[in-house]
Write a structure and sequence with these properties.
This protein is α+β, with helices and mostly antiparallel strands and about 120 residues long. Helix content is about 25%, strand content about 45%. The radius of gyration is 14 Å and the shape is globular.
Length: about 120
């Protein structure tokens, strides 16, 4: 079996704050990318209007970090997929958790395997 090519981490963060604030979400995603030691290529966010949440994606040279938020439920769904020997998906998740003031209540790790 070959070593994993990357880690695909999926998590839910409950009790989070600022989930309707696009600037806060973008700052959290950028800080997460920095903590993961990955290269940001682009950031795209969409706000769903007053009282609504935010969907965002950070396109990385090493893959992506994405988020979808439900402020009415204080919940953020996070998807972090990173490749490369120095990329750290766990560090990225920790930063998002801290920046949004919530806690991870569900986490799944998927090793992306080379053939």
């Amino acid at each position: 079996m070959t070593a994993p090519l990357g880690l695909h981490l999926i998590a839910d963060i409950a009790g989070a704050e600022g989930l309707d604030d696009s600037a806060r979400i973008e700052a959290a995603l950028r800080a997460a990318a920095h903590a993961a030691r990955v290269t940001v290529l682009d950031v795209r966010l969409h706000h769903f209007g007053e009282g609504g949440g935010v969907t965002g994606v950070v396109l990385l040279a090493e893959s992506h970090i994405s988020i979808h938020t439900w402020p009415e439920h204080a919940l953020a769904a996070v998807d972090i997929f990173v490749c490369g020997p120095h990329a750290d998906a766990t560090a990225a998740l920790g930063v998002i958790e801290q920046e949004l003031g919530g806690r991870v209540v569900m986490r799944r790790d998927i090793a992306r395997l080379g053939l």
